[in-house]
Specification:
single chain; 236 residues; mainly alpha; Rossmann fold; 2 domains
Length: 236
């Protein structure tokens, strides 16, 4: 998060000063000459218009004392952005005159009152919904795999049998026969394949069983259970 913040500010033409427990790390992050030693944090805050906190400490790194002393006698406002989880800026900092505190919880505020933000949220929601539906349909469509494979085998068997019957077994080259049956089955199976995928994505087991019945494939062969209903009665 610190690296992302520094890079973003640099993209805006700003060169921030970085304070860190490890001054060598701060120098690598911000470059030489713009490192604020942590003991001098109050002075660094006093010279800043924006303070971004992105640390991994288990306690407050920026305290009320730090900010209170930095704001003493100061007229210019200060914005403090706490990107840390848990918070590394004491929430009471928000009560100091001239200070605006923004933290991760504050980022969850409703932004729909601002038209551009509302439009962005709407677009993001639609994209997330479409991606979720696509993923769910892909997972569900896996159930169609065994059905499609069984239907295709059945179609290829029928094509092979009819071709051999028409031309004679000795008159057909095995490799050519395999290629021809594969090609014919591919063309014939486009519609049933799409139907099977749609049925699986919709959880339509009855539709999958109907496809199996049409092609003479036992539903149990592809893992489709018989529907639960009234027991069959024998006439007699």
């Amino acid at each position: 998060m610190a690296r992302a913040a520094v890079d973003h500010l640099a993209g805006l033409g700003l060169r921030p000063t970085v304070a860190a427990r490890d001054e060598a790390y701060a120098a690598r992050l911000a470059g030489p000459g713009v490192v604020c030693p942590l003991p001098a944090l109050t002075r660094g805050i006093a010279e800043a218009d924006l303070l971004i906190c992105a640390t991994s400490a288990a306690q407050h790194v920026v305290t009320v004392d730090h900010v209170g002393r930095a704001m003493a006698g100061r007229v210019a406002p200060l914005t403090v952005v706490d990107l840390s989880v848990p918070r590394n800026v004491n929430a009471e900092v928000a009560g100091i005159p001239g200070v605006t505190l923004i933290d991760v919880e504050g980022l969850a505020d409703d932004g729909t009152a601002e038209p551009r933000m509302a439009a962005a949220l709407s677009t993001a929601g639609a994209m997330a919904g479409a991606a979720a539906r696509q993923f769910a349909e892909g997972v569900a469509a896996r159930d169609a795999g065994p059905v499609i494979a069984a239907l295709r085998r059945r179609v290829e068997e029928i094509c092979r049998a009819e071709l051999v019957k028409s031309a004679g077994r000795d008159a057909v080259d095995p490799d050519a026969l395999a290629r021809l049956t594969h090609s014919i089955a591919g063309k014939l199976m486009h519609g049933p394949t799409m139907a099977a995928r749609q049925a699986a994505a919709a959880g339509d087991s009855a539709g999958l069983r109907s496809l199996c019945d049409m092609f003479g494939v036992p539903p149990a062969e592809v893992g489709l259970a018989e529907p639960v209903g009234e027991p069959r009665r024998l006439a007699g």
